[in-house]
Design brief:
Oligomer: single chain
Helix content: 25-40%
Number of domains: 2
Radius of gyration: 18 Å
Strand order of the largest sheet: 1-6-5-2
Mean pLDDT: 90
Number of strands: 6
Structural class: alpha/beta
Largest sheet: 4 strands, parallel
Number of helices: 9
Order of helices and strands: HHHEHHEHHEHEEHE
CATH topology of the largest domain: Rossmann fold
Length: about 230
């Protein structure tokens, strides 16, 4: 007897987001081979990891980490591209769940009061239909049992893509583009700021500067991948 799910999989085969091969019934988003060989950074175990050091002396930050290493042409780039531009929200949630399982036992990150995804401008959100960083945040939330708050930060200006900009141009592009809503409600709280890929840290720094206006706030950063150059 052919079940409905088997019939659907014949018409719409489930494909690994990493290698593109067909998934088995007990596999989700990634095949076991790709999941096992994810290029994990283990930054969350090192208080002086490259993500944390990038912001040291620039903004008030407790710690930072990224789940994976990002390289051009890699499976990680393929996954991020599908997440951002191909509607594969499930990739973000899945990677968030995986990393959340690691972070929930990391004292540098857990417990916390809220997970804050870096917001998209409303025009970009309407074009894409979702925020890729929020999908990652949802996965983290499921594993870490920390609520997601997508209302605390607002992106007030629509900026150009950062992909081909120089380091200096990236900072100019995102200077003072975020505002904090109801900051008095978050005084003294610990927040985890979430983004997809960190390169120069310009966008995250702009977010942190806005959040630092909250009295006594403590901020950590978590990203899907690190492509710092």
């Amino acid at each position: 007897m052919i079940y409905l799910s088997d019939f659907i999989s014949l018409i719409f085969p489930r494909i690994c987001a990493g290698c593109g091969n067909s998934l088995w019934k007990n596999e989700e988003v990634l095949c076991h081979f790709c999941e096992y060989h994810l290029p994990k950074t283990n930054f969350h175990l090192d208080p002086d990891n490259p993500v944390t050091l990038l912001f040291r002396g620039r903004v008030a930050l407790e710690t930072g980490a990224a789940f994976l290493h990002f390289h051009k042409g890699s499976k990680v780039q393929r996954m991020v591209h599908q997440l951002k531009y191909k509607g594969r929200k499930d990739i973000g949630v899945y990677l968030g769940e995986l990393y959340g399982q690691m972070l929930k036992d990391a004292p540098l990150f857990c417990p916390a009061d809220a997970i804050i995804p870096v917001p998209l401008h409303k025009k970009k959100y309407m074009q894409r239909g979702y925020n890729q960083s929020e999908q990652f945040a949802i996965g983290l939330s499921c594993s870490m049992n920390i609520p997601v708050n997508n209302r605390l930060l607002t992106r007030t200006k629509a900026t150009e893509t950062q992909t081909r900009k120089s380091r200096f141009s990236r900072y100019q592009n995102v200077n003072e583009i975020f505002t904090v809503n109801s900051p008095q409600d978050w005084a003294g709280k610990k927040l985890i700021l979430v983004d997809d890929v960190i390169t120069t840290g310009a966008t995250l720094e702009s977010c942190i500067l806005a959040l630092n206006a909250i009295p006594g706030v403590r901020i950590s950063i978590v990203c899907i991948a690190s492509a710092m150059i």
